[in-house]
Design a protein that fits this description.
Helix content is 3%, strand content 44%. It is mainly beta.
């Protein structure tokens, strides 16, 4: 009975809870030609229970949709901040929501592995799409209104035609690298995800074809990703860092914003205005000029960080899910190009990673960074699942094949017989815990241990010597098992 009441208009039931929002926005509206002179907080709604997890905006209908952890889908007016309707359909929360181009429908999804289609007037569930293999992270409605798309927490892509709900395609995500964060452009044209090892990939949201890839930095764990509405720009933030980077598809690095004070939790582009919004863990929203990296405006969010940001198609409205049970909406029409740098400095030169290692002579110590590949995808992500031939590796790496080198790294015993180690995965990086990342294929070497090798501590470095073999090996199940192998003739403990 309670759920039935939730699927009816509830504006009259929420008068007291909306007093604050009405006071803040009743005198601050504009008709499109009378924009405020500075950013204005139009709305601040706080639910009685349940955290706000996602938001979406539709300027054509003056609507804001928000999904909550207690399964509530709520619809607000962006003109006066009033809660108009509320409904329940999902279980275990709603983590993503998007409007159809005409604003007459909504698509939502969440951990219950369903995608739900709703009418907005009234807010009523119209269709449930099932058969998804893992929780969902992003949804979008295509620009022509003829299909909806969804991506899972593991990077898999789904698409269904509308209004019949027929599945158009399914593309699996990466099986052998963890997706740390992702974003789907406004109408699903481009999907981007960042994976362990600093790998950034972009995909055509309609066909599922790969568009591009970059190796941002070895060992990097990306905490936030955003794709601009055109799909041409991708912004990223490293876990634990107060720096943001912007990349242009097909060209690479554009700019950085640094010294933001704390790491960013959510990113979004303000339409096509060339401005990036970033919510920091310190509760500050930074508005950043994309081309130069300057912070041009800051907005304070009360009592904590915003979980999810979303901008309107024009980029003039900015909505936030969180902190906590709050939903907020700003008019940011007044924000323009930087006049002076308030915080952070633009970086004009390309990102300077560590200087490249020199190639060793026969028998010398080799830096394993030399084995890093700029744009490697495992078989499950390639059109042709056949193993990489040696000729497909960069010439500099092919030149290492069949030569004797010494390697240093952190050992993980992959195969043992009793107390004796048979095979070691030798990684460039120490084992990670809560904030570590899983080494990707080009960050470790499969080492056949010398006879008599006993148990090794993965936190203590070793040095091995032997002949290096270059080449991808794909197992019977279709997954790559290694790119590099070494038959060790000697093993020495360096630490401890």
């Amino acid at each position: 009975m309670g759920d039935a009441n939730l699927n009816k208009p509830v504006a009259t039931q929420r008068v007291l809870s909306m007093v604050i929002a009405l006071l803040m926005c009743s005198c601050q509206q504009n008709s499109g030609h009378n924009a405020p002179a500075e950013p204005v907080l139009r709305m601040q709604y706080e639910a009685e229970r349940g955290e706000a997890l996602c938001v979406a905006l539709c300027e054509a209908r003056s609507l804001l949709a928000a999904g909550f952890s207690n399964d509530r889908l709520r619809l607000f007016s962006t003109a006066d901040g009033v809660l108009q309707e509320e409904a329940v359909g999902h279980r275990r929360g709603i983590t993503c929501v998007a409007f159809s181009p005409d604003g007459l429908h909504l698509v939502s999804a969440g951990p219950d592995r369903t995608v739900r289609i709703w009418t907005t007037r009234p807010l009523t569930e119209e269709r449930v799409l099932e058969g998804i293999h893992e929780p969902l992270a992003r949804v979008a409605w295509r620009a022509d209104g003829q299909a909806v798309q969804a991506v899972t927490v593991g990077g898999a892509m789904y698409a269904w035609s509308m209004p019949d709900g027929e599945k158009l395609f399914f593309k699996p995500g990466p099986m052998q690298r963890g997706v740390s964060n992702m974003d789907l452009s406004r109408h699903g044209a481009v999907f981007a995800w960042a994976a362990d090892g600093g790998n950034l990939r972009t995909w055509d949201g309609v066909s599922g074809d790969k568009l591009g890839g970059w190796r941002m930095q070895d060992g990097l764990l990306v905490g936030a990703v955003a794709v601009d509405p055109s799909g041409a720009l991708v912004a990223t933030n490293e876990v634990g860092s107060d720096r943001l980077d912007v990349w242009r598809m097909g060209q690479g690095y554009v700019s950085s914003a640094v010294d933001l004070g704390s790491p960013s939790r959510s990113l979004t582009f303000l339409g096509g205005r060339g401005i990036l919004a970033a919510s920091s863990l310190a509760g500050v929203l930074h508005l950043i000029e994309v081309e130069g990296g300057q912070v041009i405006e800051t907005l304070d969010s009360p009592m904590g960080s915003v979980l999810r940001l979303h901008a309107s198609a024009s980029g003039n409205l900015l909505a936030a899910a969180g902190p906590g049970r709050r939903v907020m909406l700003w008019d940011v029409t007044s924000v323009g190009s930087a006049v002076e740098v308030q915080r952070g400095q633009p970086i004009d030169a390309p990102v300077a990673n560590n200087p490249p290692a020199s190639f060793p002579d026969e028998g010398d110590l080799m830096d394993m960074a030399l084995l890093a590949l700029p744009d490697y995808d495992p078989p499950e992500l390639r059109h042709n699942p056949e193993p990489y031939s040696k000729g497909q590796f960069p010439a500099a790496i092919r030149a290492l094949d069949g030569h004797v080198f010494r390697l240093r790294g952190f050992p993980l015993a992959a195969d043992m017989e009793g107390e004796l180690v048979q095979t070691i995965l030798l990684s460039r990086f120490p084992p990670g815990c809560c904030f570590g990342s899983v080494p990707v294929m080009d960050e470790w070497v499969e080492v056949a241990a010398p006879v008599g090798t006993r148990s090794l501590n993965p936190d203590l470095r070793i040095e091995v010597q032997g002949v290096l073999e270059v080449g991808e090996i794909v197992g019977p199940e279709g997954f790559a098992s290694s790119l590099y192998r070494l038959q060790a003739t000697s093993l020495e403990l360096l630490d401890g």
